[in-house]
Amino acid sequence: MKEGLLIVLSLIALTSLCDTINQLFLKSAINSLNFTPTFNIIKIFKFIFQLVINPRLWLGFVFSVISLCIWLLVLSKAELNFAFSADSMHYIFIALASRLILKERFSSLRWLGTGLIISGIVIVSLS
Residue ranges of the domains in the chain? Predict the structure, then answer.
C-alpha cells in the first residue's frame, strides 16, 4: 500500500472517529433532556435554552469542527470521489459505538449491511 494512501485513509478514519464522537455527544445531550415534541412555545424555548447550556452539545460541536478541519486536509490530499467513498467508515464507527456504548440492538440484516459497507470501502481503496 502506498504511504500517501495510508496517510489519507488514516486521516479519513480520524475524521470518521471525530464524527462518531460528535454524534455520541449530541445523542447524549438530547437524551438528557427528555423532551416531548409540543406546540407550546414556552416549552420549546425552555428546551432550546436547556440544550444550549448543555456542555455535551458544545463538546459535540468541538468534535464536529475538528472533523471538518481534518476533512479539509483530506480533500487537499485525495480525489473527492475516493475520499467521500472511504468516508463511509463513519457508518461502521457509528454502528459499533451505538452497539457498544449506547447498547442499541442490531439485527443480523443491519450487521450484514455494515459488512457490505466495509467491503465497499476495501474495493474503493484498492482501485
Answer: 3-126
